[in-house]
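Weekly puzzle thread! Below is a chain. First person to post its structure in C-alpha cell form gets bragging rights.
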Amino acid sequence: MYFFIFTEINTPLVFVEQCWQYLFLGLIQGLTEFLPISSTAHLFVLPLLLGWDAPGVSVTASLQLGSIIAVITYFRSDLSHLGRAMSKALYQNHWKDPSANLLLSIFLGTLPIIAFGMIVKLFWLDYESSFVRSIPSIAIVSILMGILLYLAEIVGMRLKTIENLKISDGILIGFSQCLALIPGVSRSGITITTALMAGYERKSAARFSFLLGIPAISIAGLVELKEAFASFELAHAFPLLLGISASALSSFFAIDFLMKFLQKQSMMIFSVYRLLFGILLLGWYY
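Winning reply:
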C-alpha cells in the first residue's frame, strides 16, 4: 500500500488512500501531542498495526505544524501578554514582570532542545532506523515514563504556579524536553512530569509545557516540512495538508480537554495508560 507523500500518485484510488491515511495520522497526532502519551510512539505503532508503512520523521514533524496552530490559537491571550511583556522588558527594562520572567524561561528553556536537535540531525545519520525507533524501545520507554509520571504525582508538592515560575526551573524543564527526541518519551509528558516533580501544580505544569513547546515544535516542523516539500510536486501536497488540518483541530480539543481535566483530576490515568500501552506493545511484538 502506498503511503508516503513523495510516492507517485498513479490512480485516484491511491490518492484517496493517501488522503485517508494522512487524515487519520493528523487526528492521532493532534490527540496525542498534548496528552502525555507520546505522539511519535502512536504515529509509529498504529500504522504498523493497520498494515501501513511507518511514517518517517519528516512526516511526523510536518504534522506537528497543525498542533502549533492549535496551541497558538488556544493560548493567544497568553502570547499577547508575553508580547507586551517583551516590549516593556526591552524598552523599559521591566524584567521583574512575571510575564517577562515567563518569556525568558521559555527562551532559555528552548535552547537545549535546539542544540540537541541539531546534533541528532547532523551527526546521528541513522536515527530513523536506529533502535530507539523500534517497537521494543518505544514499549520500554513508555513503561518507564508511566512510572516517572506516577512518581511525579506522588512526590510533587503542587505548591508553585506559573506566575512565580523560576527561571532555573524553566531551564531544568527545558533540558528535560531534550529527552523527547527519544520516541515514546512524549514532549508534553516529560516536561509536565519534570514540572510536577519541581513542585508545580498540575494546570501550571501543563500550561508551561504547552507554551515551551511552541518554539521547538515550530522549528522542527518547518525544517522537516521544507525537506519534505523538496521531494515531491506541489500537487502531491494535499494529503499532507489535510493531515495538518486534522492535527490542528484535534490538537485544540486535546489541549482544552487536558486543561479542564487537570483542574480536578490527577495524571494517574495517563500513567496507567502508558504502562498498559508499553506492556501490551511488548506482548504484541514478542
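Puzzle host: Confirmed. Bonus trivia for everyone else. Residues 12-285 form one domain.
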